[in-house]
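Q: Could you fold this chain for me?
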Amino acid sequence: MTHRPLEEPLRPVRPHPAEPLGAAWNRPPEPGDVDPAVLGALLRRHGWQRRGGAAGRYGRWTPPGPGAGATSLLVPESRAFPDSEDLLAEALLALARSGTPSAREVLVSLAVPSDEIRWWQDVPTGPAEVTAWTVEEQLRAAARQMLLAGALATRARAGYYGARYRRTAAASLADVLVGSASGGRLTAFAPVATARPLAVRLHQALYAAREAVDYQRATGGMDAFDGAVEAGVSRELTEALIALVRGTEGARVGVDWAPAAGVPAGCAARAEAVEFSPGDLPVLREAGARYLRAEPSVPVRITGAVVRMHRSGARGEGSVRLRVIAGAEIPHLRLTLDEESYRIAGHAHLVGLPVRVHGRLESRGGFRRLTDASGVAPVQVDEAERDRLMKSLQDNSEIAAFFEEACGGD
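A: Sure. Below is the predicted structure, expressed as structure tokens.
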């Protein structure tokens, strides 16, 4: 069984909205659905400048960067202005036609109210053809790792997750849009309706990680990392931060809350981005190793389907691989069974029955191994499944009798 190293990039969460996505992201917002105050807040956030306009009625906005004077938007200050609907329609059309990256980001946040998670890297200058694509890939890979670490922390608090919760955490990222990395900058859009808990947890975890690093560098103690687990700090997050900072002169991560949804409870309205430097890397590595060592094994009762079996001889103990159905949020696990338990698991494998087993899920190996396995037994199934299984036993009366009671027969 092979395992994904922590350093290996995750599968892409979602492409930029310029690529095929759901209708909600691609559909331009209707003027009647846009709050002028929200549009103004988003323009200001993305670097647009207000340059005059009729006070109390509308403002003239120009985009950031060179050539800003070539494009401008007239945005009403409120819907009380008589021509507000027409001005909003013209502004949205101009944004849709603009080649400015910030215009696309404004439209994305208007289409689906989203918290914006941003990453910046200060990358040493070098030949563009050598560094450009590798820097962008490093930034995207680190951002994906960090999003997954935040999603894991919304499932449970742990210093090290390993394989636990990974499927459900990855599924929770399905609605998150990740933009194109450019100039050492990357933005992800976390829809408020489905992904705000992720944005909040990541925001809190980053600040806790920064404080724990500062404490260690000031005092030499690692105790602050123990308390930081409750805020969402984990080995997975420290590995993501290492990937983000490694090879750079420093990196920052910040979260901007969706203006349409307001600031979540317990969070600052305008929090500064959290900065990490190469000098933080030894502390982050030590913290990750500490989390790996300290995370305890977990007592569990697993229900799973036997998918692989192996032992060196005709008798004695053997190893079994289960596809986990219930009892732990991991896809598969391995365990070693004594001869009798191995025989029960083998019969279950032959007839397609799942088994239930008690044991301890060990952190070593990423919570993919069950130790002290006991109580292996086939699991009852419903009547329709019972009939299907019994038909498969018609040429083996001994095994059929063994499983008759487990399948619910009289």
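A (continued): The longest strand covers residues 298-310.
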